[in-house]
Amino acid sequence: MNNSSNPRSSPAAHVRPQEGSLFSYHDLQHHLREVAARAEQSASTFDAGRWAHLSGLWHDLGKYRPAFQQYLRRASGADPDAHIEGKHGRITHSNTGALWAEQYLRDRCGEHGTIVARVLAYLIAGHHAGLDNWNGGLSSRLLGSDARDEMAEAIAAGPPATVLQPEAALPDPRSIPVDGKTTTAGGFALWVRMLFSCLVDADFLDTESFMDEARGQRRSG
pTM for the full model? Predict the structure, then answer.
């Protein structure tokens, strides 16, 4: 956890008001790594730890975009004078990780990477709004100019190479339960929802541990 009263510190995942006019900043890289570790631990119980780790590591990549950092500081009150030219309302961030998974894994691993990326993109893109339709909905969303602009801005901001290009082994697509080859009807859909639960629970718990330290400590015992 990185707490700082400096509004120009490293990119933040969340901002928490302190007493007076000070604010604490949840370091974004730290948040990504913590969510990855928590999600991996949970998913390891059904042999899907590597899938959950990458989804956690990339789920908030879009928060590196400067427009999101300005939005975060303005919305929290940390910097009420922050202006986002040409932007109105909430600034999206969940498309970047999904698009990065598709680009990076396709370029690195070809067909193998494309299969892995399809699952990861589905999880990451839905980690706030909920899972989209597997067929159609996600693809049309990620092909839009807003999603592409979001990723371009976030990647241009320079996320750490160890986040963008982790050295860990990739998930094995052969571990995906395929309906008709498992003993459980609907096994693939259940598996995806279990992975999604690992991601959103990890995100919630790490966010809570920063935003409400006392509650986070009580929960962890």
Answer: 0.86
